[in-house]
Amino acid sequence: MSGEASLFDAIVVGSGASGGWACKRLAEAGLKVAVLEVGAPQPDANFTEHVPAFELEYRNRAPEIVRQTRPIQSHMACDEYNYKWFCNDLDEPYTTPPDRPYLWLARLRRTGGRTNSWGRVSLRFSDLDFKAASRDGYGENWPLSYSDLKPYYELVEEYVGVIGLAEGLPHLPDSKFLPPMALDCQEVLFRNRVKEKLGRTATPTRAANLTRPLHGRAPCHYCGPCYRGCITHSYFNSSFTTMTDALHTGKCTLISNAMVYQVKTDQDGKRARSITYIDRNTHQVHEIRGRAVILCAQSFESARILLNSADERYPNGLANSSGALGHYLMAHIRNAGGSGELPAFGAKPSLGGPKRPVDGIYIARFRNIENVPTSKDFLRGYGYEGGGFLRNDLQAPGYGEAYKKAVLDPLAGVSFTGFGEVLARSDNFVEIDPKVKDRWGIPVLHISMADGPNEKAMSKDIAESIGEMLEASGAKNIRTYANPSNGRWAAHEAGLARMGSDPKTSVLNQFQQSHDIRNLFVMDASGFTTNPCQNPTLTIMALCVRSCDYLMGEMKRGNV
Ligand SMILES: Cc1cc2nc3c(=O)[nH]c(=O)nc-3n(C[C@H](O)[C@H](O)[C@H](O)COP(=O)(O)OP(=O)(O)OC[C@H]3O[C@@H](n4cnc5c(N)ncnc54)[C@H](O)[C@@H]3O)c2cc1C
Ligand code: SF4
After folding, report:
1. Nearest ligand 2 atom to alpha carbon 221
2. Which ligand is in closest contact with the Cα of 36?
3. Is the CB of 383 under 6 A from ligand 1?
4. pLDDT in tens, 140-179
5. What residue segments make up the domains of the chain, in order of their start?
6. Which CATH superfamily hosts domain 2-556?
7. Is the pTM here over 0.85, yes or no?
């Protein structure tokens, strides 16, 4: 094992949405930071959003080539263009019970983590979420309120750039918006009719995609495939924003290809002393010391590091005196939705037109909010992502001239997928699988998660409600569906080291600081006490900045 001589003020694990912000906030304040990232650096030269398919070896037409090494990752945003950014599933396995399949998608292995290929929908939480337990009696409240986080949402949004339209909904607070992307005709019709007939809000999608220049980044030019990168830096990716800022300070050291294995503590177990990591290429083990340790590796990976760091004092995982570590796994159900056809209003499909990179519409939650009757079937709520489509109908019936004409007739309409809250339940959990190790000899996770009755009832309602809204909009050929979530949840994992006021039932306090080990923080979504239906990343980033400010205050006060 080789040791790093220097002691850092903070060691950050992971350089994605949360890690990027931790590095920027701390390094810009003058702290000496090391960031350990298992992935390789991500220069703009890696981006392929403007590369035509004919320049690829297999023209992006041979998914089985990608599936050979990425059988899991190739299910989402991972194809011949970018598959090398994703983990090799054979090198980095995990296990599940046979009757509880789980697709652990989106395991990015590059500076910037998942923000390289994310969908960028950015929504604030509200006190309907933070204080949900007070309202419906289920689970625990967050140990903080919307007013604690609001200034940090604003700070993050001003830097990231979030597009959207102010709607004044108390349960989906408005951000500091840049102008939204335009809706198409079907979306305008849907938005207006659903508001008029059902009082529900279908708002232009709120997303971290620029429509105006911001901090040296150009507005989007509508080329389309953002999951392959963006040389104009028009969407938010921590690799070319927060991480770049942090590295420019000269105070932040990026250590790439560093697979973190364990956090080690002092002899009395009260302070995190160092981190051991394995170089992905050489397999050499290193140890690095820091005054504070901040895990930002994404909920599953941060939990895995803590569970693998079990020692005599913490036999069930580091910082786990509560027993809550590894439990209360949440994601989003997203296996219900629907579509319907609407008039094309004279528009013609075009392969060469501008490609809006985000869905047109987000339908805000309307179940179990203030001033509406409470659902008898399920707790909490859901929203929908989706929008208009306009395409040639290649499935049109007929032959010859009739078929050609039918194909050219545009098929237009709207299509939506629900994103629903999964309740925090102890029996959705992860643990270390003692029998299986990854390529570097590190024990892997066993993930056990399934729909409960609440998720099943919510899925059914998601399908029924979108049918109702499609009807209200005047759509024809309405199709709805509600499948079991098992196996395919949204890549919005949260929980596993939850925050709370009581150290007996939670792992972290409201500043994502371990109750047990004062210089250990987990600043990704692990601390989420609930996982409301809104996408998590804006909140991950705001919480992270707030926790970094607290950490620096504690360092000044001599408490860390
Ligand atoms: C296709 C796709 C669409 C998405 N759409 C949305 C959306 O619309 N809105 C939204 O809010 N969210 C979306 N997400 C989710 C979003 O990307 C994540 O919520 C967010 O990036 C999580 O931030 P994080 O810092 O926790 O983790 P990440 O951004 O994943 O960063 C974690 C980093 O830690 C590194 N790491 C992991 N393990 C180790 C280890 N042992 N040692 C060292 N480094 C390690 C990883 O390589 C990675 O770089 C989407 C994700 C994907 C992939
Ligand atoms: S569509 Fe916009 S954000 Fe996406 S890659 Fe192109 S320019 Fe960048």
Report:
1. 7
2. 1
3. no
4. 999 999 999 999 999 999 999 999 999 999 999 999 999 9
5. 2-556
6. FAD/NAD(P)-binding domain (3.50.50.60)
7. yes
